[in-house]
Give the backbone structure.
Amino acid sequence: MRLLRLTLHRLAVSVPVLLIILCGVFLVLQLAPGDAVDALLGQMGTADATLAEQLREQYGLSGNAASRLVVYLWRLVRLDLGFSVSYNQPVLDVILSRLPATLALVVSALALAFFAGAIVGVAAATKFGRWQDTLISLLGLVFYAAPSFWLGLMGILVFSVWLGWLPSGGLQDLSANYSGPRLVLDMARHLLMPTVTLATIYFAIYLRVIRASMLEVLSLDFVRTARAKGLRESAVIYRHVLRNALLPMITIIGLQAGAMLGGSVAIESVFSLPGLGRLAYEAVVQRDLNMLLGIVFMSSILVIVINFAVDLLYAQIDPRIEAGA
Amino acid sequence: MRRRMGRHHRKGCEMNDLMINRRAFGLGAGATILAGGMSPAALAQETPRRGGVLTVQTYSDLRTLNPAMRASYAIHIYTSKMVEPLVDLGVDNQPVPKLATSWSSSADGKTITFKLREGVKWHDGKPFTSADVQFCAMEMWKKYQNYGTLLHRFLSAVDTPDPHTAVFRYDQPMPMELLLRAACELCYVVPKHVFEGTDLLKNPANLAPVGTGPFKFVSYAPGQNLIMERNPDYWVAGQPYLDRLIIRVINDAAATTASLESGDVQASFFSAIPRTDIVRLAKDNRFRVGTKGNEAYTILNTIGFNTRKKELADVRVRRALAHAVDLNFYCEEFLMGYGKPAKGPIPSTSSFFVPGSAQEYPYDPKKAEALLDEAGFKKGPDGTRMSLRLMPNQSDDIRAFATYIQQSLQKIGVKVNIELLDAAGYIAKVNRDWDFELCTDTNLYRGDPGVGSTIWFQSGVPAGTPWSNQFGWTSPKLDKLVEDALVETDSPKRKAMYGEFVKLATDEIPVLMALEQVFISVASAKLRNDHNSPRWPGTSWADVWIAS
């Protein structure tokens, strides 16, 4: 019952937030010079004025901005994301075709960053002030500071061009025509480098967060008590300290999952992956309003859902926090 | 070292030949250029190898794959393997038969008859006939296709006396050479039975082409790839040699180089990789790098002047700005030899190029300053004569050139503020609202000046037409010349008229055609029969094969 109430409450808060986001994106794109037809003409490299008018009519771009916004929102109420001008397909179809690649990339990168970050962060905290800690912190700083597109390109240079171990980009080997488990394996091979590249920056963040919060928890009284009652050091660290230190990590994951679902334009460009980030970027360049709003709408919903899930997870990890309290 | 290389490359460009690893073969500049380490004669003796998959890179993402309704360099890379034109462009810019086998024009130039190839089948098995040509001409080329609407504006009917004859009737004389040259890009034929009676713009075949070409459509994932497979019933017996053809979209220039080097893709077109990589791969004998096979893809980098603005209304100011930019230096140091200063709106690769017709503006900052003084724009106390906005169109190449223009003009006391716009913004602000002082963009030369060159100087084009005369400049003399040339059927006379056009256009320079570049291809040295015609990336590739 409490869960239901919480859900309803969250839903009620989310609707106005969603509305503000969508109106904001709509208005910002109105401020950019040129519309979808201009972008289309740019792609054609030529045009005449009558053709442009004809296209504007066809794509429903001739009305004023306010009425188009109302039309869009009304369609959204009926769960219709509309038609993409730049892809000549329904927006939902295009987004769904891009979603699996993005999800695979994001989920694996987040998981990798989370576990690697946690392990290395704990190691740094337990060796606080020693050379291991300094080394790990330095590594974290390097990964945090290095731009991901650069890491990606260096990865391609080393593992594809020099060593020839991994493919340089794409989602699958198109010339091989694999199916079944071979296809899965092939896709995993293609996703390995992008995943690691995308994970590095998040790894650096998690590592620093977990190290800091471990150090904080380590100084608390109950840790001294646990040690005093003769628990093994590993039991103290993993059962008492880590569990408490994980809470800020989960908060951050909740916040970042949404951002990562929006995709990473840099990673997708470097590895030529068909993801949502690149799609959103193209939508802006092509002034494809329906597409951009569709992506924003979907990612907003995902952020809301993930944050809700994070709230529930809090209660699981720390029984002192009650969901909805 | 870099200077020396620049010279080598420029030479390579001028010879329109593929650059290969000359150092590896110990050859100096001026030595015979060999293709992939073998002489052309040796290549011809090799037996074509069947099979294999060819994967090539492109950076363009397309909304439609119907070349009968949309014409662009990019769409031809994708679709020319599946859909064929009436004629294609052979070496020396001569038309070669494709779906049309022969052609003739009536004495008054108003009736043009095409004999069509017999025994050609669409990919769905139905026969190709003159009715398909008639349908495409009247319903697609004339009504919807960019450039086609202009080319065929006087087309009144296409008669089909028999299934293999199509007679084009025009109200005004149509120069045969204009039609044939334009037909390579604008007269692609798609099947009438697939499109008739449907909403042409929304027909599913626009994204899954049915054609007569050597490759059949398999799948298209926009922004990712297009996959095609061998058409076993192609009308050239034994061709194509390849089993499968994949066009992959890779947007990132550095990633494109990496996929070439790792062997994931075997060719890349339209100067898609960074210039430093072009120079580097040109020295690597796994690749052939050069402008050969791209002669029809000549582009001109422009500097446009909005003559409605008081500073730029004065022709002396426009000439001064033209004198102030050292284009030779730019070609050598920034284009790394792949490009040269242009001589007017008709590039030197064109058969319409008349040497000496263009007024030239050699680099001469002293003269530039004198012209500005004379026009009354003296240096202010801070050394500035005037302040202008420069808008480059979206492309790394154009933006680099914009920075160069800015720094060049700074030296003669003209302060330039660069305003960066993306493609849609550029069209809206520069082409439609004319809210600019200086702009820099690309003019794609379309083989015949009547197709895409004269429109940049003509007046009377409806306002808001992109890539036309945005400069607010009018010349009744030029307008008349351009209109007359479009219906002039006498070939030498027509060429002379375009020589005169270049003279007029370069004398008052509403827009300076600054640089001439031919697109650069990078291809694996294992490819055979590649880059063997002037618009090779946009041709059918039926004879291409991969050596083992």
Notes: The mean pLDDT of chain A is 82. The radius of gyration of chain A is 24 Å. The CA atoms of residues 222 and 228 of chain A lie 9 Å apart.
